Amino acid sequence: MKRILLFSLLCLALVGFSFEEFDAIFFEARSERNPEKILQLIQTLESRSDLNQSSELLTILADCYLEYGDWGVPKEQKEKTLEQARKYAEAALKLNSENGRANYIAGAAIGRLAQYKGIIQSLFMLGDFDKYINKAISLLNENDEKERLYKTFALIASGMRYRDVPWPLYDYKKSEQLLFEAAKLTPNYSNIYLELGHLYVKTNNKQKAKEMFQKVIEMGPHPLLVQTHFNAVKTAQEELEKLK
Known about the structure:
The protein is mainly alpha-helical. The chain has 13 helices and no strands. The protein has helices at 2-14, 19-32, 35-46, 55-72, 75-95, 100-113, 119-124, 126-139, 145-164, 172-185, 190-202, 206-218, 226-242. Helix 2 packs parallel to helix 4 (55-72), helix 3 packs antiparallel against helix 4 and helix 11 runs antiparallel to helix 12. The chain is globular, with a radius of gyration of 18 Å.
């Protein structure tokens, strides 16, 4: 009972927060991969009477659902949670179609939802994925720290798309190019090298794959993506074992 009361009081305390304050809470929760903090933020944002008039608040809410669907809910709830991410991102875009971050979130949600669909349906979703992700890449300002990070995410997502689609739609050269562009923008983000490692495994370049996985293990975390880095290290270690 005390925990429920405390949770309710925290939600009430957040109601008057500005976009910047909500965004700071989101970045902190994502860095920690803290599901309770993300859920608290979701419930607070959904309770706001002005939510549907603010592209910025809808974008944070969509981002919360994207992250929560990735690591905060059981497997059987992931698809439903990612549908919420797409819904809120597209609502944000109806208010401001030039919202680069919302374009990225909509595309990323579609990309992650595709894995729950059959191969034919997932291929039909590629058009929407490309539309949103390519627009995000064109809109996001790499001279702004947070926008540069989201542009990096979008480049990684596009690189994975060209790596992971079935024959004859894949393009490994384009995948590598996009991932290198991401590394140029944010060289201290270990997931880029993890995805490059997976690419080199697919192209049977074991030496390069080992180099990328080893780089992930040896580098430090991006300050805004700490837990993501430690998960990447664990995956890189597992992949190196397979290559021995």
